[in-house]
Recover the amino acids of this structure.
């Protein structure tokens, strides 16, 4: 494993959806998530992390803690067996060892053996206690750059579920005709490399994260999600571990513009200009203000 990251990072991720549901809300009949005040679409941070985990599990031999079919307490017992093999009583698993060194070793074993724990962190005190750790990589909710208009499409099923049930069945499918979404992310070097609290998130893990963010939608196809694709990944790399500028001042340098018949305006002006709704990536242009960049911050476009 390569050495833990020693630089702070922030990033801006743009992805889009065509004729699909990027993140259904189970409390609203699986309708696309929506901000009711602005009608901007939302995609949860958890949904993006799931896609990253699935890509890493498929593309590498790294183990994933939060994976389908996992029994978390059995994974925690693996750590106990590796660090404290003499422990046998079930009651002793419920609390971390009083020996702080052994407690740290349990959590460190989980970080070393599961990619998503050392990346996103985890609470591992679910009956068999392996501690908890705060991950260096965090995502925000994604938000569409302009309002979306979810559609409810009627569909039919020709096959019957049982004999004499009447043939075809009506159903519903929710789609977003088109939406461009923007998410922000943060990578903390101290939470990766701290001597006692760091997860060990490494330069190699970081490269895998960039690959996953770029390619995760290509291996997450389904009829429900339509066409989804990562369109742009803009990374801000700081020279220092604590950072050389405020994150928000860097995010503000990245702006989204609508393009129509040679004209370009910041998003939100299309209604004023009576432009048609965006229906493809080429309807937008992403601009990065590189003037007066803070010393010690590098912009990387991937």
């Amino acid at each position: 494993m390569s050495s833990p990251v020693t630089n702070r990072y922030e990033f801006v991720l743009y992805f889009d959806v065509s004729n699909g549901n990027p993140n259904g809300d189970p409390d609203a009949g699986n309708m696309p998530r929506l901000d009711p005040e602005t009608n901007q679409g939302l995609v949860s941070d958890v949904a993006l992390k799931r896609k990253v985990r699935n890509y890493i599990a498929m593309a590498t031999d790294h183990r994933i803690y939060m994976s389908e079919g996992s029994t978390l307490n059995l994974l925690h017992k693996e750590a106990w067996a590796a660090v404290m093999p003499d422990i046998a009583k079930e009651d002793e698993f419920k609390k971390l060892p009083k020996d702080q060194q052994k407690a740290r070793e349990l959590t460190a074993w989980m970080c070393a053996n599961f990619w998503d724990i050392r990346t996103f962190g985890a609470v591992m005190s679910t009956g068999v206690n392996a501690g908890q750790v705060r991950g260096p990589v965090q995502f925000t909710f994604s938000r569409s750059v302009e309002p979306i208009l979810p559609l409810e499409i009627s569909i039919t099923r020709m096959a019957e579920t049982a004999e004499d049930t009447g043939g075809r069945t009506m159903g519903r499918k929710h789609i977003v005709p088109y939406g461009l979404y923007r998410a922000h992310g943060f990578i903390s070097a101290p939470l990766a490399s701290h001597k006692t609290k760091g997860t060990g998130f490494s330069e190699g893990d970081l490269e895998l994260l960039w690959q996953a963010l770029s390619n995760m939608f290509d291996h997450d196809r389904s009829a429900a999600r339509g066409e989804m694709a990562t369109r742009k990944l803009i990374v801000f790399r700081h020279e220092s571990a604590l950072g050389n500028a405020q994150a928000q001042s860097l995010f503000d340098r990245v702006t989204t513009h609508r393009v129509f018949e040679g004209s370009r305006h910041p998003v939100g002006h299309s209604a004023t200009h009576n432009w048609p709704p965006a229906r493809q990536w080429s309807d937008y242009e992403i601009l990065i203000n590189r003037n007066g960049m803070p010393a010690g911050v590098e912009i990387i476009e991937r």
